[in-house]
């Protein structure tokens, strides 16, 4: 019998907590019946939810704690108040102890990154964690990272992002040698910050078997799906992600407006209702919920804080796949393959500088 | 009789050159008959175009040059080969000489920024130029800058952007005290790069009469129109702009797909055709064409290189308004008002650091 996929949930995370987390996990369990959950949080809030979802109850074990990290807590505050006691910490710690394959939280990003880093520690050769997610493009999905785990970063950091993102793309998109591009303000070699040009030269010089570096990609290249993996430091990655989300919402609103303005357009809307529904589903931001915190000795998935149960279920799906396809081993292999791609990066960098 | 608005055009700029520039300018002239043009470029290419647009011909004077900056020329190349001789340089130089109020080019951004900087020089207190444009939001238009004239920048640079952007918003959007936000990856005070936090503290401490600083704005705040003026350094600004443009094109394509899939949706499309046309016009990227290069002793407008005549006409409209409402004087006033807002910025910065 194959092993079950074990997932730890921070049942207190997010704007709402247990009443989103548990129905969400139940929906994912429905899709992946071979899942087991460890739930961390306030038993008094968790049990009533489990009572409504018997299959989920049967697949879960609850570990009570009444300490929860607040959505506005600073990372330092969260660590001071919630280390070893909060639902967020305990979920991450279950990964460290090997009790589960992944921890999932809709809690605040800064606290989650800080706690995961403190508890799990970084992988050898990786300086800082990164948030990666699937971005729906015209050509299918691309992995984009870092979406805001940390800000800034040197060439070595960007190369680490390229390697980890490629591991994730090979797992989630089933690609043997994903294409990788560096986000930049132009495609010409001399464009952008020095660290980006340096990373580009190194990636080209390394010519790795596990990824195909294809050059710089401009902001509109993300929507085009110009590469399977698109790499940028976390400040710009976060701005790009949210600028795109904002634009999508803006257009949806403009479209709604336009379709309700005249009797002809309202009639047209009625006829095309199924098409609009399909479009809405295709663009549903819930479906892109769940970014993966990479670079740690263990996998942590971050859900949007403001998501609903349906959205949280997608984050749980992401966590499930990461464990099922063993992302962590894949990343480790990628980092250490051929005498260590990152060590090689160091050499290539020195060679070009 | 009021003075005419005089505009210099780089007739060789852009992917196409004269056959876009001249019909485009003619369309703008039609909207603003009090315009006069100085056209720089190859007479043999310009004259046949003017022959097709008699009103434009009557309002234009042609200055021949057969040197043109290539779309792929590096800035240093462009300066070496095109200084004092290229159509781009001559158009900018006409601003310097006071022959025109603005120069407009669809030529390559890097070369245009370098030439404008070299020819016109920076305004006192401004270190580097910035590209600013109107961004259509859910709430109307916002001024966003820097969209990629230069990359990076300290707190002083960000404050200069806030001041210049406010001057532009007050001219183009007719606002007495525009709201200003700094683009960041969170709204909390401790978020983001140090220079952003420093700029925020200074802008708050200065409490200027000509702008209302309202805090940090996340990427999705642009589409929401969360502030009249949204400030960021040029790398992120360029990525955000193009990520949004890419998303808009992606959604338009998804919508087209959805509407052509079934007979019901095709019928719906026919009924709602006018609504779709209105939406398309509203989202027409041509209408946002024309970003303004700020911070120089003179105004230069940059058009997309790949635009058509209709799009170029909008860039000419932007140039027209900048001269008509005297943006340059407005910026100078803003920079020097109350003993110089930028000098004040220096003091406020020292006070908070």
How does this structure look, described?
The structure is a homodimer of 353-residue chains. By secondary structure, chain A is an alpha/beta fold. The termini of chain A are far apart. Residues 349-353 of chain A have low confidence and may be disordered. Chain A has helices at residues 18-31, 43-52, 54-58, 75-82, 87-96, 109-120, 155-172, 194-206, 220-224, 234-259, 263-271, 273-283, 309-324, 327-336, 341-352, and strands spanning 5-10, 35-41, 60-64, 102-105, 130-137, 140-145, 179-183, 212-217, 229-231, 291-294, 299-302. Chain A has an eleven-stranded mixed β-sheet, sandwiched between helices. In chain A, strand 5 and strand 6 (140-145) form a beta hairpin. Chain A has two domains: 1-120, Isopropylmalate Dehydrogenase; 123-288 and 329-353, 3-Layer(aba) Sandwich (Isopropylmalate Dehydrogenase). In chain A, 57% of the residues are buried. In chain A, helix 1 (18-31) crosses helix 2 and helix 5 packs parallel to helix 6 (109-120). The interface between A and B is large, with 63 and 63 residues.
Keywords:
Isopropylmalate Dehydrogenase, 353 residues, alpha/beta, eleven-stranded mixed sheet, homodimer, disordered C terminus
